[in-house]
Every structure is written in structure tokens, then in C-alpha cells.
């Protein structure tokens, strides 16, 4: 986040896009609710689903998944066209405005309506509202980034904020809501293929040199490494031969499960270090038992860049060791002793190598941590970034064109599936599914389908449906709800018995390499129908298009009459016994037909 | 800079008021209530409906005081403190009013204190003791023994209306803090109770199970199921989403038995969600990995494992397991080069661990093939 969590309560307007905040970041969701309910904070929601916040929003822009750039460009079109922009900010602090203005010129609200499905009047209203306040903040989640255009989406949001001067001040800013307790910290620490700690590029010789000296090695690799998706590649000549996986469960969390499973089983050697026997651990060669958060000391960095202390409360079970200790021991075994440092001493090493963490020392973290950049022992930390000046000097407008998502609906796969989280569960579920209360509150996953689609598919609440994409197929109970949109289905990925990532696609953003979890073209069919259709081509055709089926197959008039009148007993005498639910479905289907 | 500093100091001066409470000069910031001014000066005033995180409510009538120049008695929780105010917290008039108020509350409260989950942590007990209430005081007020069914529908907590004193803290917490409004006061007079919409069981309501109500209930009306009192608390950070709420883990022996939000934290100000408050027991789950495991010879990776870990893996010592990992990684590095090895770090692990693993990947293995699930 450029700003702090507390700033959510200070903004006059919040623009939440691609974030189901009340479920995925409940404590921030609460601040938004309190603002809207008690302080008159204006709220614009852009989300294909009618989330809880959407229900209380001033405006809900229900755009089609993956059309964010078109939507935001059109808002900027209106802001420029109606001269609602912050000229002073643009002039003093930015560059590239002309290019942006040129690009968004063609994104009229009417044109954007065609792409996004959002009425042009709503786009105009949202643009005026956004530009009409002094302090507006944008909050976004994975709904923005999990797209093949994720980077473009973020750039476009940055454009919107710069255009209106909403950055570098309290109560404004661009706030990505990070999904995991220490995902910010893992990035800060250089657990990324292209950067060392504190986002120092591996290609920068000077930065490498500093690390080489500190670590006592002669030459660190200069070439950026592979991202997770690239490591998992099954293409000949790509991917890796061995993997070491600490505290992750890619089988459940990565797109296209068949592909993930194949690439992991293909490895010559796989080590998994975890606290539970996860679906990924099962295919490992060696499993190393690790400690949970409550069993060790350390720090987490939250979404507002606040480095906070984690403290040991419990003794670990059996022989489980802290992850830092395991890595230290393994480095020793491989002939490169790190020195037996405890977490506090490791943080001293981090501070010495990482300018933005330069002032982070355990003795300073006893209260409520420090927000980086915190460059030296006396630095108080930074509640919001880009005050007075951007890191690169002037803020650059990146003019971005709309590009459609990798997948779109077709006659074979007429629904768009988007994935996400729900309130009671978390990620692969290895923690929450083992928590009695949380699992009891929400023991089963569902696929959310809009009533209009349910009517077309002849399915009712609670039916089991088969969801298939080009990658694979799963079965899940259906929840019919208008929280989703016509043509859009939603599923969370917390259930290993309902692994939605069987159907998701590995298509990813070209620079950030984030898979497009939010847009997969799928087909949903009543599960019993799907199974029956597989065994019987005639039945499949009959279910799909009864009139045509009658023409295509050589049937007697008597048989035709039996089908047209929905005589299930006769039909069963030809195709075999039908499931009760399927009988009902077929009767309804045949009754719908105009014979 | 200097001007700003002096203005602030001056503002501070103006923003402080002085009042006299029970003969003691008390300084308080402007804008606080009489109750807060007293509490801030370590002067106890009994309360049941007051909660520092909620708006003043004035329901329980226990915090009444006398203030010079004001007629009768006033509830200190709803009266703004003013400069030069003279407040008396214990006068015969005040004590009489408090006694009547608490007797009426206790007359409708089922008193199975010894077996109540809130025993010794109950605010009603504390206030009753402070005011010296005896059984005979309120026996005459008892209106028969109406017993309401306990709502046990929720997997995390029970709602026992018989112990509810209608202070409204749960209702206000749900409204003001959670912003949900799943419960409200319903019915009138003797029949009044805290109810969901349509008086449905709480599990079937719009309740989001954040537990802010439980954290604030002064009595045993809202208690976690299987309550076990913690014997010590450890301050740490919640392991779920990226918000980073500060929490206290309530410990009993080697087990986490409760989680409390940290009120001082600028991040969550004491608030927690359902995962943070109730999702702590995975740490003590029996399926935790406890020993290094090595895949048995000839066990293919295509077999489905249904809890049968023992058939596929054998236990090993740390030395043996780490030796094997070191040997195989070295072999593969030698055979195919360092870039043939990939490492996934974890957004669940600490900064120190992520740092060490990338250092291991770069300095020991010699590749930049390190990533984690930031994208998922």
C-alpha cells in the first residue's frame, strides 16, 4: 500500500476494485463499512460480483471480468473531457500526460459500455464523483492483478490517481490489499527471481557485490531466475529438475492442477517443508516438519509495510523445527555455513543489506512495528509513500490500451468462471480446514451460479454440477445467487475435495506472471446428466437439442411421440435406467421444447 | 517548525480541562465524558454498559454520579466533562440509585455462578460485590423462573438469554464495530431480549462470526463453546490475511485456548475477524508433521494417499533427511547446473526465513530461481 490502513478511514471517497474486502480482509472491510455507515464516506465498487460492499456502495460498476482497463480509461476520459483533473499536480509531479490524454480519447463512456457492460451513465457518474472530492483512495485486490493484463490494470489505476492528484497525501493513494500474512515480507526479502532484498535488482552489479561480500561468496548469479509458473513448465527444455518448496501447496493453489501435478511428479527430486501433510507433500521425496507461526520468533510485514514481531507461544510438536533453523542446518550440510544466527541476528543481517529495512531492529519493534522505508536507527518509518516526490522523480503516466482476457466464452464453454476466497477459509485450506469452528461454519464449497444461468441449465440450488474447461473437470454443489452476474460463475479454492484449479488456466500476465485466475471459460452441466451423456451419445444429443436429435436418429413415429410427450418409461427402455434427478431434468427439458 | 511545535503545545494546554472528582483535582483531555475523566484518574465508577470502543449508551444506570450545580443524579458515561466541574461518585443518593439498578438487573439473572464460564471474570459479579448486594435484597424482585432456551446453533459460541442483562454492548459492537447489525434489542419490558432478525438462531442470521460481541459481553450470556481459561497471554501477529492484526494468544500449558485482539494496535484496534478469533486450533491439530519423512523405495508418485502416509514414507532423523537433501541437491546441481533447481519460499513464513531461503538459493545453490505464492 502506498498509504496506511488507517487512511481508509480518512478518505472522503473509496474506490474499491477487484476486492471482496469484507470477506478477504475483514478488518479493512470493517473500516470501509464504518466509513460509509457513520462518516458519509462515498464508496464506488467495481466488481463483476455483487459483493457485500457493492450492496452498500454509492455506485456499483458491475463490469465484465477482465475489462478493468476499458472501465478506468473511460472514467479518465470523462475526467479529462469535463476538465475535472488536478492540473497543478499533473504539471508539477508527473510526465506523459499528453500521451495518456491521447490514448483515453477514444474510450468514451459509450464505447466502454460495449466492452464492460457498465451503463455509460454510471461510468460518468463514477468519474465525476471520484474527481469531485479532495481525498480519494483506491483499494484493490487480486481481482485487479490475477489477469493477463494485471500490470496494465495497476498502471491504469495509478494513472487515475495521478490525474486527480490523489497520491502522496493522507487519505489517498493506491492500496493493494495483500492476501497473506507475510506476502509483503516475502517480496521485501527478495524471495523473487529478479530482486535481492528490498527490491535491489539482481542485474545490478553493485548490489550483488554487497551481498557477495556479506555472504562470503565469489559470484552471485546475475541472470533473473524463473517464476513459479516457469519452474513448473512441462515444455521440453524448460522448467527445473528439482524443487525445494517451503510452506506452499501448489497442487491446490496453482492453476491447471493436472499440469502442476505432472510437473511436480516429473521432478527428479522434490523437498517439501511444511507443517501439515499437504497434497503437495504427498509427492515429495523428503518431507521436513516445520514450526507453525505460534512456535517461533520472527517478523511479518503487513499490507501497509509494517514490520511486526511474531513471538513464540507454543512448543512445537515432535521434532518439528523452525524454517529458519532448517535452512541454516541445510546450508551447513551443503558446505556453506551461515553461522548459527537467531531471528534477531538474522534481522540485523537483513538491515545491513537492505536500505528500506536499514532501521529495522528487534529492540525497536516491541510496540507496533515500523513501516518501511525505515532507513536508519532514528528513522520513524513511513506511513505513506510518494510525499512531494515519486521515487523516480516525476510520476509517469503509462498510457494503456484495453486488451481482452486470454479466454472468452464460446458455444462449448459458455460461462466465465472466476475464483477467489470466502470469509471463513483461507488459501489452500490447510489451516482453516483443520480449525474446528471454521470448518463447521463452512464445511463445503459451492459453485455460485446466477439464477438466469441456472434456469437455462435446468438446475436448482444444491444440485451437483460438473464444471469443465479445456483443462479438466470437477463436480461441485451449486449455490444459486444473484451475487454473481449472468454468465459468470464463482468458486473459492479452499477445498482440496473441490479443487477448482483443475479447470483454471495458466495464461498469465506477461511481466508479472500472475495467472488469470479470474477468467476461465467453462461449461457447467448437471453432474448426473454429464455422466449419462458420456455413456450414451444419443442421450447426450437428446439432452442438448431434442428436436435435432429426433431428426438425426432413425426413430419410429412411436418413439418420436414418446420423446415429445416425455414418456420417461419408454425412454428408459432404450437408454437404460435414469437417475431420479436426471428424469426430472429430462422431463423439464422436453417440456420446454417447441415440437 | 518551531511555530508548529509551540502551537501544538498551546493547543494541548487549551485542550486539557481540570475538574474535581471526590475532592481530587483531575486533569482530562477536552471532549471526554465524566466517566472517562474519572477512570483516567484511577477513580473507579461501576459500569456494565460502558465500553471504551463504543459510543456512550447510558443503559445500566450504574455510573450515576452527583455533579455540583446539576439537578439530581446523572449518568457519568453520557455527561461530557467540563472545566471546573465538581463531581461526587459516592453519595447516599448515588449509592441508593446504583443499588436499585443492580438489584433489578440481578433479579432477572440466573445465578449459577460457580459453573458459569464467566465465573470470576464476570463484570456483574464484580459490580455486585463492589456494591455489597445480598441475596435478600433482590429475592423479592424475582418474577418467577422463566427459563429461555440457550441458542447453541453456532459452532463457536452459545447465547444464553437467561444471563443477559440487556446492556446492549453486543448489539452496539455488532453495529458500530463490525458494521453488520445481525442483532438488536427486541420486544418490550420483561420480554425484552437481544434477538436476530425474526428471532432466528444466530447461525441462521447474517452474523459473520467475528466474535466482537463475545469479547464485550460482561456476563456469561455470550461465551465461547468449551471455554477454557488461559493462564498466560503472548502478544504476536495473526497468521491469516495481509492486514496483520496484532493479537494475544491465550495459553494454557502448551495449547492455544483463545485469541484476543490487541486494543492498542494501530492496525486492528482490538478487532478480529472469524479466522483470527476462532481459527487458532490448527496449531495443535493431530495431523501436524512431527518427524522428517523419506519416501520409501519404489513408491510411485501417482498413488493416491488417503491418510496412509506411513505406507509411502518412513521416518528419519534430521541428520539423515538433511544429508539426503544436501546430497541430491548437490548431485543435481553438478549434473544439470544450478539453474536446474527451483525454490519456492513462503508468504506464511517470517521475513527472517524468507531472507535465509533466498540467501540459500542464491549463495549456496547459485541460482535466482526463487519465488513464492505472491501471485496466487
In short:
The complex is a heterodimer of chains A (595) and B (376). Chain A has 595 residues and is an alpha/beta fold.
Give structural attributes:
heterodimer, A: about 600 residues, alpha/beta, Dimethylsulfoxide Reductase, domain 2, Rossmann fold, Barwin-like endoglucanases, 4 domains, 25 helices, 19 strands, globular, B: about 375 residues, alpha+beta, Ubiquitin-like (UB roll), Alpha-Beta Plaits, 3 domains, 5-stranded mixed beta sheet, 3-stranded antiparallel beta sheet, 11 helices, 16 strands, disordered N terminus
Descriptive account of the structure:
The complex is a heterodimer of chains A (595) and B (376). With 595 residues, chain A is α/β, with parallel strands linked by helices. Chain A folds into four domains: 5-176, Dimethylsulfoxide Reductase, domain 2; 183-225 and 290-371, Rossmann fold (3-Layer(aba) Sandwich); 415-527, Barwin-like endoglucanases (Beta Barrel); 536-592, no CATH class. Chain A has 25 helices and 19 strands. A six-stranded mixed barrel of chain A has the order 14-18-15-17-16-19. Chain A is globular and about 90 Å long. Chain B is 28% helix and 18% strand. In chain B, helix 11 (351-365) links the parallel strand 15 and strand 16. Chain B folds into three domains: 14-143, Roll (Ubiquitin-like (UB roll)); 151-227, Alpha-Beta Plaits, CATH 3.30.70.20; 315-375, no CATH class. With 376 residues, chain B is an alpha+beta fold. Chain B has helices at 2-14, 34-40, 92-107, 123-131, 135-139, 169-177, 212-216, 274-278, 309-312, 318-336, 351-365; strands at residues 16-21, 24-29, 64-67, 73-75, 86-88, 157-159, 183-186, 193-196, 222-224, 232-237, 246-252, 255-261, 293-295, 313-315, 341-344, 370-371. The two termini of chain B are 46 Å apart. Chain B contains eleven helices and 16 strands. Classes of the chains: A alpha/beta (595), B alpha+beta (376). Strand 7 of chain A pairs parallel with strand 15 (341-344) of chain B.
Amino acid at each position: 500500500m502506498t498509504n496506511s490502513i488507517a487512511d481508509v478511514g480518512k478518505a472522503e471517497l473509496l474506490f474499491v476494485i477487484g476486492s471482496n474486502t469484507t470477506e478477504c480482509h475483514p478488518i479493512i472491510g470493517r473500516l470501509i463499512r464504518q466509513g460509509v455507515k457513520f462518516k458519509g464516506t462515498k464508496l464506488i465498487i467495481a466488481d463483476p460480483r455483487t459483493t457485500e460492499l457493492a450492496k452498500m456502495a454509492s455506485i456499483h460498476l458491475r463490469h465484465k471480468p477482465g475489462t478493468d482497463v476499458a472501465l478506468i480509461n473511460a472514467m479518465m476520459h470523462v475526467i479529462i473531457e469535463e476538465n475535472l483533473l488536478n492540473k497543478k499536480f499533473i504539471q508539477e509531479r508527473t510526465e506523459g500526460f499528453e500521451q495518456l490524454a491521447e490514448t483515453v480519447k477514444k474510450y468514451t463512456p459509450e464505447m466502454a459500455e460495449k466492452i464492460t457492460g457498465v451503463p455509460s451513465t454510471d461510468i460518468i457518474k463514477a468519474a465525476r464523483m471520484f474527481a469531485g472530492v479532495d481525498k480519494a483512495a483506491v483499494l484493490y485486490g487480486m481481482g485487479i492483478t490475477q489477469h493477463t493484463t494485471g500490470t496494465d490494470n495497476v498502471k491504469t489505476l495509478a494513472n487515475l490517481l495521478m490525474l486527480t492528484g490523489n497520491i502522496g497525501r493522507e487519505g489517498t493513494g493506491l492500496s493493494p490489499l495483500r492476501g497473506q500474512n507475510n506476502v509483503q515480507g516475502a517480496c521485501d526479502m527478495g524471495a523473487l527471481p529478479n530482486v535481492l532484498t528490498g527490491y535491489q535488482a539482481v542485474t545490478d552489479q553493485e548490489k550483488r557485490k554487497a551481498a557477495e561480500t556479506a555472504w562470503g561468496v565469489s559470484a552471485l548469479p546475475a541472470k533473473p531466475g524463473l517464476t513459479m509458473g516457469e519452474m513448473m513448465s512441462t515444455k521440453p527444455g524448460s522448467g527445473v529438475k528439482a524443487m525445494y518448496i517451503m510452506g506452499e501447496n501448489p497442487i491446490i493453489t496453482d492453476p491447471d492442477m493436472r499440469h502442476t501435478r505432472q510437473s511436480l511428479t516429473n521432478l527428479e527430486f522434490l523437498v517439501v517443508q511444511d507443517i501439515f501433510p499437504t497434497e503437495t507433500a504427498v509427492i515429495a521425496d523428503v518431507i521436513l516438519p516445520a514450526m507453525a507461526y505460534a512456535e517461533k520468533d520472527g517478523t511479518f510485514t503487513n499490507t501497509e509495510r509494517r514490520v511486526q514481531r511474531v513471538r513464540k507461544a507454543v512448543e512445537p510438536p515432535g521434532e518439528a523445527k523452525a524454517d529458519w533453523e532448517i535452512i541454516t542446518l541445510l546450508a551447513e550440510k551443503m558446505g556453506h555455513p551461515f553461522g548459527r544466527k537467531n531471528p534477531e541476528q538474522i534481522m540485523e543481517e537483513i538491515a545491513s543489506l537492505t536500505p528500506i529495512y536499514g532501521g529495522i531492529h528487534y529492540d525497536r519493534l516491541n510496540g507496533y512495528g515500523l513501516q518501511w522505508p525505515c532507513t536508519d536507527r532514528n528513522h520513524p518509518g513511513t506511513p505513506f509513500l510518494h510525499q512531494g516526490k515519486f521515487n523516480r522523480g516525476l510520476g509517469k503516466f503509462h498510457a494503456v490500451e484495453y486488451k481482452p482476457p486470454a479466454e472468452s466464452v464460446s458455444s462449448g464453454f459458455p460461462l466465465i468462471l472466476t475464483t477467489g476466497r470466502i470469509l471463513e477459509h483461507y488459501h489452500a485450506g490447510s489451516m482453516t480446514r483443520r480449525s474446528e469452528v471454521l470448518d463447521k461454519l463452512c464445511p463445503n464449497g459451492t459453485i455460485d451460479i446466477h439464477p438466469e444461468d441456472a434456469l437455462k441449465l435446468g438446475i436448482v440450488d444444491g444440485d451437483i454440477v460438473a464444471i469443465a474447461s479445456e483443462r479438466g473437470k470437477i463436480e461441485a454443489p451449486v449455490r444459486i445467487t444473484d451475487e454473481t452476474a449472468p454468465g459468470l460463475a464463482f468458486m473459492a479454492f479452499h477445498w482440496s475435495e473441490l479443487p477448482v484449479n483443475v479447470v483454471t488456466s495458466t495464461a498469465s500476465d506477461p511481466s508479472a506472471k500472475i495467472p488469470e485466475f479470474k477468467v476461465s471459460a467453462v461449461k457447467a452441466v448437471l453432474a448426473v446428466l454429464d455422466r449419462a451423456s458420456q455413456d450414451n451419445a444419443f442421450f447426450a444429443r437428446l439432452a442438448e437439442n431434442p428436436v435435432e436429435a429426433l431428426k438425426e436418429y432413425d426413430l419410429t413415429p412411436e418413439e418420436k411421440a414418446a420423446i415429445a410427450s416425455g414418456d420417461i418409461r419408454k425412454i428408459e427402455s432404450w437408454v437404460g435406467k435414469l437417475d431420479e434427478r436426471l428424469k426430472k431434468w429430462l422431463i423439464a427439458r422436453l417440456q420446454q421444447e417447441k415440437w | 517548525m518551531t511555530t508548529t511545535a509551540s502551537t501544538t503545545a498551546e493547543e494541548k494546554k487549551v485542550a486539557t480541562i481540570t475538574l474535581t472528582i471526590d475532592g481530587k483535582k483531575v486533569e482530562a483531555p477536552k471532549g471526554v465524558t465524566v466517566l472517562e475523566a474519572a477512570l483516567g484518574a484511577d477513580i473507579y465508577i461501576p459500569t456494565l454498559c460502558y465500553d471504551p470502543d463504543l459510543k456512550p449508551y447510558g443503559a445500566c444506570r450504574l455510573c450515576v454520579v452527583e455533579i455540583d450545580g446539576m439537578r439530581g443524579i446523572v449518568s457519568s458515561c453520557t455527561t461530557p466533562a467540563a472545566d471546573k466541574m465538581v463531581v461526587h461518585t459516592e453519595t447516599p443518593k448515588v449509592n441508593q440509585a446504583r443499588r436499585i439498578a443492580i438489584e433489578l438487573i440481578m433479579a432477572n439473572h440466573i445465578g449459577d455462578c460457580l459453573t458459569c464460564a464467566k465465573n470470576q471474570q464476570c463484570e456483574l459479579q464484580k459490580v455486585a460485590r463492589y456494591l455489597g448486594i445480598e441475596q435478600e435484597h433482590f429475592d423479592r424482585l424475582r418474577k418467577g423462573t422463566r427459563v429461555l432456551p440457550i441458542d447453541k446453533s453456532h459452532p463457536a459460541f452459545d447465547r444464553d438469554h437467561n444471563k443477559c442483562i440487556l446492556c446492549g454492548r453486543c448489539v452496539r459492537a455488532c453495529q458500530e464495530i463490525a458494521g453488520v447489525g445481525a442483532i438488536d434489542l427486541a420486544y418490550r419490558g420483561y420480554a425484552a431480549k437481544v434477538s436476530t432478525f425474526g428471532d432466528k438462531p444466530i447461525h441462521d442470521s447474517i452474523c459473520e462470526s467475528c466474535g466482537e460481541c463475545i469479547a464485550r459481553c460482561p456476563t456469561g450470556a455470550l461465551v465461547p463453546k468449551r471455554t477454557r481459561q488461559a493462564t498466560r497471554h503472548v502478544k504476536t501477529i495473526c497468521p491469516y490475511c495481509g492486514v496483520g492484526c496484532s493479537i494475544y494468544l491465550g495459553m494454557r500449558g502448551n495449547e492455544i485456548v483463545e485469541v484476543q485482539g490487541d486494543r492498542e494496535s494501530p492496525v486492528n484496534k482490538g478487532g478480529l475477524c472469524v479466522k483470527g478469533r476462532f481459527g487458532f486450533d490448527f496449531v495443535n491439530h493431530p495431523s501436524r508433521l512431527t518427524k522428517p519423512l523419506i519416501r520409501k523405495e519404489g513408491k510411485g508418485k501417482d498413488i493416491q494417499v488417503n491418510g496412509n502416509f506411513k505406507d509411502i514414507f518412513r521416518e528419519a532423523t534430521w541428520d539423515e533427511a538433511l544429508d539426503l537433501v544436501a546430497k541430491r541437491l548437490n548431485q543435481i546441481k553438478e549434473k544439470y547446473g544450478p539453474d536446474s533447481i527451483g525454490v519456492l519460499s513462503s508468504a506464511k513464513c517470517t521475513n527472517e526465513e524468507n531472507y535465509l531461503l533466498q540467501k540459500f538459493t542464491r549463495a549456496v545453490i547459485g541460482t535466482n530461481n526463487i519465488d513464492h505464492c505472491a501471485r496466487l
